[in-house]
Please model this.
Amino acid sequence: MVLPLLDELITLRNILKSLITIFLLGLFAIPFFFLTLLAYMFNVAARYKTAKPSGRTILLTGGKMTKCLQLARMFHANGDRVIVAETSLYKYCGTRFSNAVDLYVTIPKITGTGEKYLTSLIDIAKKEQIDIFIPVASPKAALYDAKAKPKFPDETTIFHFDEYIVKRLDDKHQFIKMAEDFGLSVLESFHFTSKEKLLSHQFGNHKKYILKKIDYDPIYRLDLRTLPHKGWRERVEGLPISESDPWVLQEFIEGKEVCTHTTTQNGEMNMYICSDSSPFQVNYKMLHHPKVKEWVTSFIKQLNATGQISFDFIIKDDTVYPIECNPRTHSAITLFHNQPKAALAYYQDPISFKTFEPNQNAGHTYWFYHELYRLFTSTNLGTFKMIFKRIWTGKEAVFQWSDPWPFWFNNHVSIPYQILKNLKKNLPWSHIDFNIGKLVVPGGD
Model:
């Protein structure tokens, strides 16, 4: 009797949360629609002022994410023809309605072997004569984009690591071992394929550890309680640790957390960003930590491959320790909002120019609705003032006066559409990640 009642309460809570969120986004949609329309009318002439055509055609995936929109704007400003691909759930994503996008294509979601997804990318490359394919990949798609590399036409350059490299970098344990083999500083890491092995692990030297699922999970990744803690055995008993779903135990230390994004060609650094980081990071500002850059430079030099690579680090006592690596684009790339020439990092000779870094005028980027939520839930005047200042002095990552529609469609059409689709299936969701344009659901990508 208790369990059915509990399920009903959870369902009711999910319905209420969904309807309230849609109502609030709808409420804000009205003033933002008129602001967007005003911006569009004043900049209508600018829509037709494009750079001299380069003759290049660029294919980007991950249209729902701001980082895809950022790259599309950069390539467009350099005269490139930009094609964006995304799955049907995100057919109303803001990038689709950007002035920078010449063609938007709906592709199948990744299921099973991913064959339909892979075939669709190859078909686009052949039909549209793609010169460069740059995956703006979700954690799940990164591997499948790598699998597609050998199948692309010879005329298409694929700016992505090979499958073998993606697998190693994405595996939190293998990545640490790789960095250790490269002679770089690392923290202790242990690999587990069963609950029994983890429960029998000897925690020594008064160290603390963080338990992480190796495969990306949008829910588990935010559970960063240190082990051992009271009740940790009961917690472990409820986790899906197995041969097919391994987990990693990483040494935990207190320190400054930063993240980086790097675009590399054959081991050369062409683009570099370093910013403050946190488990749920939606604010970016360029930081200068020479030792972080040295660590990244050494790693990619020894990796000697071509692709986009992001790292998370902890800095303690002037030593840089990697936490994890993501072989894909980082949202911090929004710091190039005023440097479209940085797109050259993807197709010019890697040794013909210096590494692109965000300039002083880039300031900091944020997402309005993330900040608005923080503003409404702030508990003291000091926090309220800090958030308000961040909104006032920073750059909203999606909104652009000369390209206003992506902001409106992303926040007021695409997100409500996803909530309604989720509600129809009576599925739970934890929160909205506006920077990647999606509803965060258990088992999502």
